[in-house]
Amino acid sequence: MAHPVTLILGDGTGPELARATRRVLDATGVQFEWVEQEAGIDVFEKTGDPFPDTLIDTIKRTKTALKAPITTPVATGFRSVNVKLRKDLDLFVNLRPAKSYEGVRSRYENLDLVIFRENTDDVYVGIEFEQGKKDTQELISWLRAKQPLEKIPDDIGISIKPISQYKSERIVRAAFDYAVKHNRKKVTCVHKANIMKHTDGLFLNIARKIALEYPTIQFEDVIVDNMCMQLVQKPEVYDVLVLPNLYGDIVSDLCAGLVGGLGVAPGANIGKELAIFEAVHGSAPKYKGMNKVNPTAMILSGVMMLRHLNELEAADKLEKAVAQVIKENKNVTYDLKPKGQEESAVGTNEMADAVIAAYHKM
Ligand code: NAD
């Protein structure tokens, strides 16, 4: 039976990446019932809404989606489609593997890290108070009354960082369950509980408590700034990381950098019943329509989707095909070519074709 999948075309380089990835996935022989949906700047320019009404219902129906990147303009009223999708569909796990592939330029070899970023809590909840506004001044007055010893200045903007027990428990449990299922050795909880005792402290205490239920998995905690240094110095000692939303966002990009950059970093947003698979990178709008950017991250997100759909054989074969194309370094995009050899790069579509050819030879 065909797997129903919503294909979210995104904007910028999104549509070209989505279509190339769809071709690759169709070439595996696995049957999909694709439902294409627009979202982002392109559809906003046509309809005035970056988030069509049909989007949520379609994903709820297909239960699985493959999403191309979507632009979020900085400092405008345009709310992030990405954040809204994760929130509205309660996709609480952001799973981001960071794995080395031979042929990708990197100072590190044989890395195989998995990041569990909490996706629905923390400063991303969007409770913010703008500097100079009446509400903000009232909040400042209230804070001054509650904390008379703190000097709270007048000229501040305020973002609220909610960390809840329930949401912390479910992400930590997801990380441990993954570790058990995939024979991982260690889970590291990353936090700043020394400073934020009632938010990160809560997250850490929950992680410590849940760790006791998983005696076969080693557990440790590391403060986030130290974690960044440790990851640059000796990433090979880490295995599964679990982090609140903001640190997870930052540290997972750092980990993508360790294995060769955004072009090869896939990801998934997973809830109880629904899942959206997407590359870690953004819409790279300066390359829009140029058939230039690397489809690997989105194809590897497709590999994660195949595993989610229990198409394990096709997933393993497709991952090997991608790895082979990267290793051969012939039919790859500009970012995977050695410095000075970028002119010999191929485009998005040609790299997708090479992956399809490698798949058929496996
Ligand atoms: P970006 O990832 O789009 O691009 C940064 C740079 O990385 C690019 O200029 C390009 O040099 C390189 N790059 C990115 N993807 C590549 C690929 N597939 N192949 C080769 N090179 C690649 O990050 P940005 O410029 O910070 O963000 C652009 C827009 O994307 C922003 O509006 C941002 O909010 C959005 N964004 C969306 C998502 C998402 O949809 N999940 C994620 C991150 C950023």
Features:
12 strands, 41% helix, 362 residues
Low-confidence stretches: none
- Helical content, roughly? 40-55%
Biggest sheet: strands side by side, in what order? 2-1-3-12-11-4-5-10-8-9
* Main sheet properties: 10 strands, mixed
How large is the radius of gyration?
Answer: 21 Å
Strand portion, in percent?
15-25%
Order of helices and strands: EHEHHEHEEEHEHEHEHEHEEHHH
Return the average pLDDT rounded to an integer: 94
Alpha plus pi helix count? 12
Distance between the termini: 24 Å
**Number of strand segments:** 12
What characteristic shape results from the CA principal axes? globular
Going by helix content, strand content and strand pairing, the class is: alpha/beta
Name the hetero compounds present: nicotinamide-adenine-dinucleotide
In terms of topology, how is this protein built?
Layout lengths: L2 E6 L5 H14 L4 E6 L3 H7 L6 H9 L1 E4 L13 H8 L4 E7 L12 E7 L9 E2 L4 H13 L11 E2 L5 H17 L4 E6 L8 H12 L6 E6 H10 L6 E4 L1 H14 L7 E5 L4 E5 L16 H13 L3 H17 L19 H14 L1
Parallel strand pairs: 1-2, 1-3, 3-12, 5-10, 8-9, 8-10
Antiparallel strand pairs: 4-5, 4-11, 6-7, 11-12
Helix pairs in contact: 1-10, 1-12, 6-7, 8-9, 10-11, 11-12
The structure holds nicotinamide-adenine-dinucleotide (NAD).
Structural summary, described in words:
- This protein has about 350 residues and is of the alpha/beta class.
- About 40% of the residues lie in helices and about 15% in strands.
- It contains twelve helices and twelve strands.
- Strands 2-1-3-12-11-4-5-10-8-9 form a ten-stranded mixed beta sheet, with helices on both faces. A two-stranded antiparallel sheet has the order 6-7.
- Strand 8, helix 7 and strand 9 (about 220-225) form a beta-alpha-beta unit.
- Helix 10 (about 295-310) packs antiparallel against helix 11.
- Bound molecules: nicotinamide-adenine-dinucleotide (NAD).
- Nicotinamide-adenine-dinucleotide binds near residues 82 and 286.
